[in-house]
Design brief:
Helix content is about 0%, strand content about 35%. It is mainly beta. It has two domains: about 230 residues, Jelly Rolls; about 210 residues, Jelly Rolls, CATH 2.60.120.920. The N terminus is likely disordered.
């Protein structure tokens, strides 16, 4: 199943489970910050976090963690415009920087990133080590390369603010999810202090880190307290100040249960992605996008789409090919496509079966209407509801012929596909595949106790996440 590139995300309920991540959105200027109460070890430290990157930005580096005094005095970890991970330390007029040879642009994947900084080492290549999913990365020296022996960076220096998700210079923010975020003061550790290989799947997965020695300025952020997202649970009380992040940014999309999002690599015709790749705004031209995870044969999947700005044709459905030809695909217009299409201010909606369209007399929908989507990839049907009422009174639990969209069999993998037409007022959708980017007033789980939906999940239907996939696929 080639679309299921879930990186380090575990697909088993065994072992240590991570309940929450924190979703950062650059457009909302989300970040955490604190200034240490005292200066500690500025030569030796370790940063570890599980990261799901969310954006392709050819113009701006994406800050992950670091300390900043000025444009000429800082130490930072960031993802550059080419998707290489960099460690940069600067002072006294000199920049020292190394970057991974590998690029990291799989937006369906959770990566474990571990950086060991230790300038007490005599061998320069041992002064900065970057590991991804346990593997030590081959590094290219940029600027002046590795810092000199006994170099003092400004991480752990109490004179300088420390930020997660924000680079002060140029106001650079992070787009993506972080979980199990750990800082160790005074020790250069290895990935095996934070993770292990699953004995069944061979996937790199997290372990319980609560017993580590964190050091004076060390911290452990598990993001489990929605009312205090910057809480340090290491026992040190090194809490971070929360900036522009709210309880809705606490996510259940984690390195042990990876949820479907939109995949920017399949964006055709443009469009803007926000809120952890769960909010999609049309570009100045027609645009289309696929989800990150496919639906295997026999699986029944439920998700919801909020029509934030319902101003144009808006296809919500599936395609039996993934990103065919790498070009724009108008929802419902080709064979192998099955979808439902609200049409903005038009007086009708449409549904499509294998590319063939049918108009309905259904009135269109106001902004913020929630469309529920029940994809039955066993019987080859899609059932849609509008704010909880199923269109055509179809029953998703009963192989019901009243379903508007039918006929794709259920014997092959299907892929979530969405397209938006452009108007002078760009259409906007928010997608809830189980970890919503907007406030849920009720709260409904699937039968495996995953997901969080506004409306009830039909019996037999599941949210699209790796734990559910593991159960379906065995």
């Amino acid at each position: 199943m080639p679309i299921f590139n879930v990186g380090a995300a575990g697909t088993s309920d065994s072992g240590f489970n991570v309940d929450n991540s924190l979703r950062f959105d650059s457009g909302s200027s989300d970040y955490l910050n604190r200034t240490p109460g005292s200066t500690s070890d500025t030569k030796t430290w370790t940063w570890s976090s599980w990261i799901k990157f969310n954006s392709i930005n050819p113009d701006v580096n994406s800050w992950i963690f670091g300390a900043y005094s000025s444009a000429s005095l800082n130490t930072k970890i960031y993802l550059d415009i080419n998707n290489n991970i960099n460690v940069h330390t600067e002072g006294g007029g000199t920049v020292y920087r190394v970057q991974t040879d590998a690029v990291f642009r799989d937006f369906s994947a959770w990566y474990h990133v571990c950086v060991a900084f230790d300038t007490t080492q005599g061998t320069e290549a041992n002064r900065i080590k970057i590991y991804v999913n346990e593997t030590q990365q081959s590094l290219t020296e940029e600027a002046s390369g590795y810092p000199p022996a006994d170099w003092d960076g400004i991480v752990n220096n109490s004179s300088h603010a420390h930020n997660i998700g924000y680079g002060v210079e140029g106001s650079v923010y992070f787009d993506g999810y972080l979980c199990e975020t750990v800082f160790i003061d005074g020790l250069a550790l290895t990935p095996t202090d934070f993770g292990e290989f699953d004995e069944d799947s061979g996937i790199w997965k997290p372990i319980d880190v609560s017993g580590l020695t964190f050091g004076t300025n060390g911290f452990y952020l598990d993001f489990e307290n929605s009312g205090a997202l910057g809480d340090d649970v290491s026992g040190n009380g090194n809490d971070f100040t929360v900036n522009n992040l709210t309880a809705i940014d606490q996510s259940t999309d984690t390195c042990t249960n990876n949820y479907c999002t939109l995949n920017p690599l399949t964006a055709r015709g443009g469009g803007t992605f926000e809120e952890g790749n769960l909010k999609y705004t049309a570009s100045t031209g027609d645009s289309s996008i696929f989800g990150t995870i496919g639906i295997p044969p026999g699986m029944k999947v439920y998700f919801e789409v909020k029509l934030v700005n319902n101003t144009a044709q808006n296809a919500i459905g599936i395609h039996n090919e993934y990103d065919p030809g790498g070009t724009f695909v108008k929802g419902g217009s080709a064979s192998g496509m099955y979808s439902f299409k609200p049409r903005g201010s038009a007086s009708v909606t449409q549904y499509f079966n294998n590319g063939s369209s049918t108009n309905t007399a259904t009135s269109n929908y106001a902004n913020d209407t929630i469309i529920g989507v029940a994809v039955d990839n066993e019987n080859g049907q899609i059932h849609y509801h509008v704010n909880g009422t199923y269109i055509n009174s179809s029953d998703p639990t009963d192989n019901n012929p009243a379903a508007l969209v039918t006929g794709f069999g259920g014997s092959s993998e299907q892929y979530l596909h969405f397209s938006l037409d452009t108007t002078t007022s760009q259409p906007i959708n928010q997608f809830n595949f189980g970890s919503p980017p907007y406030t849920i007033s009720s709260g409904n789980l699937d039968e495996n106790n995953h997901g969080n939906f506004e409306y009830a999940v039909p019996s037999g239907y599941l949210s699209l996440c790796t734990k559910n996939l593991s159960e379906v696929l065995g």
